[in-house]
Amino acid sequence: MSDKSRKSGGRKGRGDAAADDWMDDQKSARFHARSHHRKISASTSRSKGATPLERTEANSTVIEVFPQLCRVRLDQDSSERLCSYRRAQVYEHGLGGEGTRERSPVAVGDRVKVSSSNPQSGVVEGVARRENQLIRPAPGRERDENSGIQPVHVVAANIQDLVIVASTRNPDFSPGLIDRFLVAAQLAGIRPTLCVSKIDLFERGQKPWDVYRELGIPVFEISSKSIDGIEALSSQLVGRKVVFCGHSGVGKTSLLRVLTGREIGRVGEVSDATGKGRHTTTSAVLLHAPGNSLWIDTPGMRAFGLIGVKPEVLQQYFPELEAAACADKPCSHGSKEESPGCAARGFPRYDSFARIRQSLIEGES
Ligand SMILES: Nc1nc2c(ncn2[C@@H]2O[C@H](COP(=O)(O)OP(=O)(O)OP(=O)(O)O)[C@@H](O)[C@H]2O)c(=O)[nH]1
Ligand SMILES: [Mg+2]
Ligand SMILES: [Zn+2]
Q1: Is 345 helix (H, G, I), strand (E, B) or coil?
Q2: Is 135 helix (H, G, I), strand (E, B) or coil?
């Protein structure tokens, strides 16, 4: 979503179109789930104050989530099951603080306890306490006007690394989303890495991603076509739990194909007309890769709304601005009128910071 639409009363804070989301645009998932809809009528139980399972009680990992059903992988024999999760409770996993609520009991990466009566299917009996989670406002779900509750979508749970994928071209490199992901990673305690994809399309000139290197964020220039940079990136990620995020069409699935050496998922052409991806991947999926790696491919996001950060503390997540030599201490790094003696305005990410701050002031969670 553009900042223009946000200012003109667009879908504040969700930062995305409903079409990006598994629950709103998962044709195959609906197909899978349809037969179960009839059998399962009770609504998911919501348990304020109830406690999740201890981690040692879990016996499976959630690898894909659909409405009503999820695909899990059992620890015991690595077999997969399609499981109903309607009996599982929605726990308060310490999401985005007051006024937020997860809308699904399970997320990709969750550790769960599954009971199964046959080799194909099963039931999720409980969800283990999470180590962390990458969250965003649930696409297509506004904050409820009466209760003030913001529905939350957990992109992935129990992860160590967030690989932010941004292409040099086709679609063009766009830092706005990167800065938002960097804030979200800090909030969740996840190590961020910037992966600049399609380096084979980069002709020469200034590299707008160098600013992230200067900030100390690991930056890898890669190409899934020419395989440049893949080994270096891979060596950082083997054995780790990683979620790959970015705009549609930047090459996340292509990258995961090269990293895993498997023809996973679907890869789609970028539109010639708009220069944007076509939202080829429609639901997040966890891949068990060599070296006990858990790598999660996600659907392309148009934007990324932040949850659990107030505008006045946003600067804590922009360390270079935090250190700026402003006349007033503390300084909100606001507009010229608001903060006349502010020294943050000269920094490369200042405009990005100011845009995010403004959208938080205007009501993004
Ligand atoms: N030139 C070039 N093209 C690439 C590279 N990686 C991917 N592509 C192309 O970019 C397009 C999009 O690739 P995908 O892997 O489907 O992108 P994605 O990020 O998974 O997209 P969504 O699933 O929609 O979020 C395809 O046409 C790929 O062939 C690369 O390194 N270089
Ligand atoms: Mg994809
Ligand atoms: Zn300032």
Answers
A1: helix
A2: strand
With a CB cutoff of 8 Å and minimum separation 6, the contacts of 78 are 288
Distance of CA 128 to the CA centre of its chain: 20
Dist. CA 256–CA 265, nearest whole Å: 9
Ligand 1 and 277: CB distance under 6 A: yes
Domain end, chosen from 153, 179, 213, is at 153
Domain that includes residue 205, residue range: 159-297
pLDDT in tens, 79-91: 999 999 988 888 8
Is the pTM for the entire model greater than 0.85? yes
Stated as kind and residue range, the H or E segment containing 252 is helix 252-260
* Centre of ligand 3 from the C-alpha of residue 327, in Å: 7
* Closest ligand (CA of 248): 1
Burial of 292 from C-beta contacts in 10 A (0-12 / 13-18 / 19+): exposed
Ligand (nearest to CA of 336): 3
Task: Tell how far the Cα of 356 is from the centroid of ligand 3, in angstroms.
Answer: 15
Summarize pLDDT for 124-145 with one digit per residue, the tens: 999 999 999 999 998 777 777 7
Residue 126 Cβ inside 6 Å of ligand 1? The answer reads no
Let me know whether 290 and 316 are in one domain: no
Q: 4 or 189, which is more confident?
A: 189
Residue 350 CA to ligand 3 centre (angstroms): 10
Distance, CA of 259 to CA of 231 (rounded, Å)? 8
